[in-house]
Structures are given as C-alpha cells and as structure tokens.
Amino acid sequence: MNVRITGTGSALPGKILTNAELERLVDTSDEWITTRTGIKERRIAIEGEYTSTFAAEAGRRAMAMAGVNPEEIDLIILGTVTPDFPFPSTACIVQDILGATNATAFDLSAACSGFLYGMSIAEKYICSGAARKVLVIGAEVLSRIVDWQDRNTCVLFGDGAGAVVLEGSEGGHSILSTHTFTNGAFWNLLYQPGCGSRNPATDSRTIDERLTFIKMEGNDVFKHAVRAMEEAALTALDTNGLLPSDISLLIPHQANRRIIDATAKRLGLGTDRVFTNLHRYGNTSSASIPISLDEAHRQGVLTSGDKLLLVAFGGGFTYASALVNW
Ligand code: COA
After folding, report:
1. What's the confidence (pLDDT) of residue 1?
2. Domains in the chain, ordered, with CATH?
3. C-alpha distances in angstroms, 197 versus 192, 201, 245?
C-alpha cells in the first residue's frame, strides 16, 4: 500500500507584523533580525482568531484540493503547541468546524516536528488498514505565548496553519519513508514553563515570573538543530538508497535562514533546491512545513516524480524527516 498526498492547504492571518514595527516594541533592528534570522515579517492572529480558525481553514482547502468530503475523513491529527484550550484537543474543535463527523481526532505535541510526527502516524494508520483518508494539520498561534518584551525570542515566531490529506493508493506518488527522533535530555533549552502541572496558570508566580511565555537558549538550540536536521535527512536518504543529488527539493522547517543554509550545505544542496518562505512568515512551528509544501505545490514548483525531502527540528528535542515521491 502506498500513501499519497492528495491535497494540500494553508491558512495565514491577514495581519502582518514587520521588523520595522518590532523596532518600536523591543530594542532591535531590521538589520539585526534580517542578518541573524532571514525573517522580514510574520503573520499575527487578531482577536477572534484562534489555532482552530487557521487549522480548519487549511484543512478545508486541503480537502477541496483532494476532492474529499469531510465525512470521508477517518482521522484528524493536529500538531500544535498552542491549542485553543489545554483540553479538549483542538482537533476535536476542528472536527466540529469541518463537519468531519466520522473522524477520530487528536492533538499531537511535538513542537516544530508536530506535522512530520503526524504524517508518520497517519502513514502507519493507513498502511495498517485502520484509516483510509487522514487529515494531518500543523497549526499554531505562537503570538499568544511569545514574550513581547523578550527580543531574543519575539522576533522569531509567527502564526498560521498548513494541512495535507493522505490517502492509501496502489500507485501514484507516495510517501517513501518517515522517521521520527526524540532527545529528551535537552527539553529545557526550548519550552514554555508555565500553564502545565509544574507551574499552573492559577499560581500568581507563573504570571509574575513570566513563565507563560516561550523560553529559549538560542545558541544551543541552533547547534543542536543543524546536527539533528542533518541526521534526520541522511537517515531518509540512506533508507531509500538515495544521494543528496537525487533530491529535487528540500523543504526544511522554517526556523532560521542560517539553520536552513547550514543544513543544506552539510547535505551539499544548492539554494536553488531549498524551499524557503520564512522571510514572510517567521517560524510557525508545526505549521511551517505544510505551509511550505502547499505554497510550493500551488506555485507550480513541484513536478510529478520529484523527490521531496521534508526535515523538521523542534523543542523536546524532537526531529523528523519524510521522503516523498511527488
Ligand atoms: N535584536 C538585537 N539584538 C539581539 C536580539 C534582537 N532581536 N536578540 C538577541 N540580541 C543580542 C543578544 O542580546 C546578544 O547581545 P550581547 O552580546 O550584548 O549579550 C547578541 O544579540 C548576540 O546574541 P546571540 O544569542 O549570541 O545571537 P545569535 O547569533 O546566536 O542569534 C538567534 C540569536 C536566536 C537568532 C540564534 O541563536 C538562533 O537562531 N537560534 C535558534 C533559534 C531557533 O530557531 N529556535 C527554534 C528552533 S525550532
């Protein structure tokens, strides 16, 4: 059984926050942000917009492309670290919005690797016969857990969602492999300390010490990210007996231009074979790869038979890869 991507979709907030506007919020500059990260602007959810808003819209667009009705979806997996609520799963809310009444739905917390972890699980559901049509979504409203007083982190992140429909098929383009990895030894280098059972939102200390916001050791994260993304990419290539020269397009998690460049360089891939859009969206965590895949597809960048290498890295640490024969 092959697992095919039959539809892609994405949804982003209309509101744009530029580097120039950030200069008025914290002690930073467009020049610093551009040279250190490659980011020029990011999308920010406005009042009344939630993770489920963008997740459902991305999912609706992916289903429309696939020609699949909501009732045909057997499973919804939603990668997110910014759910609408601690519970129920935002995937349940998305199931309701879409009318995907026959789908089992759950959230998956794997930070920026959430979408590829979700693809890996979906592939196994389909191959085992437990599901036929699966909606995998990565969606975030990170702007609600970003500390807008912390210049080390607030310049990096943005909001949005991307989705794919996966279906079983006897032929056609297919997912050749998925690999997921975890290194829990470094969980505290990138995390949100507050609002869980250790530092409850009900404890005034959680608010006073700004524990509800993302904390990150940027330098350390950077080094781990480059090494991990290379390992995930090489595992995908080795498994399929492919060389970097066989890859038509690398679609990496959009965290930082320098991480992407270093990963591509280690793999020997030129920039013409690397998809980037982080200059427009920043780091949208689990949403970044499906947004990129959808944009590449709708821009006509992808040709049948292309070998796509998707690679992610995120808090946990989690990292993952997928090799797709488009
Ligand atoms: N504007 C201006 N100066 C800033 C700044 C900002 N937005 N953020 C940090 N600085 C300052 C620091 O305070 C520091 O100043 P100091 O030397 O006076 O202390 C200086 O810039 C250098 O900081 P440093 O952290 O060494 O910079 P860097 O080159 O490592 O770049 C990151 C910082 C965050 C861009 C980089 O470490 C990074 O991208 N890390 C990975 C982050 C990431 O992608 N996380 C998600 C993974 S999924």
Report:
1. 81
2. 2-172 (3.40.47.10), 176-325 (3.40.47.10)
3. 12, 9, 47
**Spatial separation of the C-alpha atoms in residues 310 and 166, rounded to whole Å:** 15
Instruction: Give the full edge-to-edge strand order of the sheet including 104-108.
Output: 2-11, 159-169, 133-141, 75-79, 104-108
Q: Is the CB of 36 under 6 A from ligand 1?
A: yes
For 233-281, the pLDDT digits (tens) are: 999 999 999 999 999 999 999 999 999 999 999 999 999 999 999 999 9
Which residues in the chain show pLDDT less than 70?
172-173
Phi, psi torsion values for 72, nearest 5 degrees: -80, -15
3-state DSSP call for residue 39? Answer: coil
Query: Residue 171: its pLDDT value, please?
Result: 74
Phi and psi dihedrals of 173, rounded to 5? -70, 155
Atom number in ligand 1 closest to CA 315 = 48
DSSP state of 153: H
- If you ran DSSP here, which 8-state letter would residue 255 be given? S
283 as an active site residue: the answer is yes
SS (H, E, C) 190-212: EECCCCCCCCCCCCHHHHHCCCC
Looking at residue 89, its pLDDT comes to 98
Binding site membership of 175 for ligand 1 (Cβ less than 6 Å): no
SS3 state at 223: helix
